[in-house]
């Protein structure tokens, strides 16, 4: 996993540099590109290893948890939300979307406030 995570992190940084050089820095294009590409890769890979071929579980860890975890955690969020939608319906998928978005933004805000308050 660590090897995949390291490669994913370096790849994300390279994508961010590439996007900034070509598209500018007025919008986080690198993050958007990494998130969308990561979502595409996890969709392809997880479908292949769970529905088409039996793969060693270490490959799943290397690619999804490792590489895509380093490249973007949004891919896991997207895949898990899609699977909730597919397996249990709209309610669970919506709650996952809302909870991650709202609680994530709230946690970010709280972290910012705490640092600003303490320092």
Could you characterize the architecture of this molecule?
With 119 residues, the protein is an all-alpha fold. The chain has a domain at 2-72. The protein has helices at residues 2-23, 29-52, 57-71, 74-87, 90-118. The longest helix is centred in the C-terminal third of the chain and has 29 residues, at 90-118. It starts with a helix and ends with a helix. The relative contact order is 0.13. The mean pLDDT is 92.
Q: Which features does this protein show?
A:
119 residues, mainly alpha
Secondary structure: elements and pairs:
Elements: H1 2-23, H2 29-52, H3 57-71, H4 74-87, H5 90-118
- Describe the global form: globular
- The chain-level structural class is mainly alpha
Helix content: over 70%
Number of strands: 0
Termini separation:
35 Å
Order of helices and strands: HHHHH
Average pLDDT number: 92
Strand content: under 5%
Radius of gyration: 17 Å
Low-confidence stretches: none
Q: Count of helices?
A: 5
Described by strand count, sense and barrel closure, the largest sheet is:
none
Brief overview:
The chain is mainly α and 119 residues long.
């Amino acid at each position: 996993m660590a090897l995949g995570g390291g490669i994913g992190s370096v790849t994300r940084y390279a994508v961010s540099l590439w996007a900034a050089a070509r598209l500018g820095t007025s919008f986080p294009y690198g993050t958007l590109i990494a998130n969308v590409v990561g979502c595409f890769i996890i969709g392809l890979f997880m479908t292949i290893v769970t529905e088409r071929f039996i793969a060693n579980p270490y490959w799943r860890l290397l690619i999804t948890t490792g590489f895509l975890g380093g490249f973007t955690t949004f891919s896991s969020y997207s895949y898990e939300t899609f699977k909730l939608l597919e397996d249990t319906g709209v309610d669970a998928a919506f709650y996952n979307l809302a909870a991650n978005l709202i609680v994530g933004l709230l946690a970010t805000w709280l972290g910012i406030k705490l640092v600003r308050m303490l320092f």
